[in-house]
Specification:
The complex is a heterodimer of chains A (315) and B (364). With 315 residues, chain A is an all-alpha fold. Helices cover 70% and strands 0% of the residues of chain A. Chain B has 364 residues and is α+β, with helices and mostly antiparallel strands. The chains are: A mainly alpha (315), B alpha+beta (364).
Chain lengths: 315, 364
Amino acid sequence: MRFNVVRRASARGSGKQAGRLSLSRHSARVGFLFILPWLIGFVLLKAIPILAALVFSFTSFNMLHPENIRFVGLQNYLAILHDRDAGSSLFGSIGYFVLAVPIEMVAALGLAALFSSDWLRGKRLLRTLFFMPSIIPAIAIYFIISGLVSPGSGWIYRLILEPLDLPPPAGLYMLFPVIFALWTIGPGFLIMLGAMQAIPREIYEAARVDGAGPLMRFFSITIPMISPAIFFSLVINMISAFGGVALLDRGLPYSQSLSPMESYIAYQMFSFLNLGYASALAWVMFLVVMGITVAIFRSARYWVHFPEEDENVEI
Amino acid sequence: MWKSKRARRREVSTLTVRLWDFTGMALLNLFVWLAALIYLSPLTYMFITSVKSGEQLSDPSAPILPARPVRYEYEGRLRYVYAVPTEEGTRELALVDTDRGGAFFVDPQNPEAGLIRWEGSWRTLRRVYTPHWEFGNFVTLWQQIEYPRLLRNTLLLVFLGEIGVLASSIAVAYGFSRFRIPGGKSLFLLLIATIMIPDSITLVPTFFLYANLLDWLRSFTSTSAIYYIPLLLPHFFGSAIYIFLLRQNFKAIPRDLDEAAMIDGASPLRILISIILPQAVPTVVTVGLLHFFNAWNEMRMASLFLGVSQERTIGFSAQAFQSYGFTPEFLQASALMLMVIPVIVLFLAQRFFMQDMVVTGMEK
């Protein structure tokens, strides 16, 4: 009761400081209770495991002989430098990121641009159709894409290449990650479409009056206006390209992750029960992904136009 | 004179503009619908393979569409019919017997004529097929894999997780959006950062922890339900990305109503349930659906912990069928049965799912 009156007053701009203090003492306690579940989960399932992995990475911890655990210093990390498989998995992971994310971003952005036209009919059904492959379980996608690209009996060979008398090319399997990426555009597409639909019409009208053509309007109005949504989709796609789960889970077990580094970590862990070495590998991957994340977030200030914070809405 | 000319020109130009608009509209619709068709075309491979017979799949020269070989009963046995090139053109003949230099056929149209001798290698001949959709594959699969039981396990898992993840994520999002928590801004940045953390960094210790927990629980009980703990527990602490989406939506709801309710003495929980949530229905439904799809597809924890369990999920089973040596038609059929429910749910919920969802920023 009391702090409500204070809020009213603060909204009018008077008695701001005194009012906020008495409000915040009560408010902080209640708010803290509400975020408590996440805090507990963060400590138990994120912070402690990450630190534990760091500790493990300096030991010779093996599941078969947990009693033989001893401190080995940087030995695991030095071993990674000499491990060819680790290097190629890491490059494979970065390679998939570099291949898949641009495909996903451009396809989703182009599709969202087409969808923002008033001319298109049956939009609701169409957006569901384009979104649908993004919820198909990975195992089903594996079966489908293998059936398409396998050189002798796959449909791409039998329906397209064979009638044209072309031999099955060796690179057909390269289509696998491309199709997979194209079938993962759903969340990014809907996020960008939502942002495009929120752009006020008057801005386009004003630009049209000033003589801006469709392309000019797209690049000078649409793209900057939806840049927060583009940024968000970029982050979402980056996480899933590195094998994580953002928004949608494809249901890939660790051993079959799209990111080779992740499956290599699982391989070291479950085939050799080599928890120390697996933890060191995980930390290397963690640092690489965090480095790329920080770079993306840093770049945001140059190309993402965040809207002005609303005055009376605060954390 | 001059005036009417100008008027006529205007008329013509509106007509051309309308023609242009119509052509543009037709082309755009054609392009997008065609793109959708091509985009989804790989799904036909799955459907068509799932209704083929094993016999057709093992024959490399078989047609692409579902069909079964034509057979003809002769002298008490069913014999395959082949397309045999003869002097009178290609004839469809049933293979009766083979020898070194060729084979003996019988004409199904005219069996009384007796055996026909054909010189050449009969293995190069193509079998004759007739269209046939083998829906029996699904029946066989249904009986073999205890589909209802897998479905029950999966739905139970989805449902319990849904309660946990929605309750906790809504509460946390409410805490972040409506209360001044000291250090709240940094805590929220931390929450955003946890979205970015790759799974494998927590894999080793989490696996170790759950493995020991399950070992300990096994000394008390023999029920398979304990293997679901690793799949369910994390959801009760809220999911960072859902919290982010919900908080963003809660922040966009004007505060006037909560303030009015506060004057009337409503508790914060009451305000959340009676004022915030009714205005956030689309986002809550979206988050609920996202969790449904994710929990349905979840394989990471399932592949680690359900291997020894009697009660499996449908996704885990579909993964295992590969190693059981299932033939392609059953693999495709099982994958189809796995994905059909999320797809139906998506179509039923398309009115709500991620509709008008606007993300305005990540850190803010």
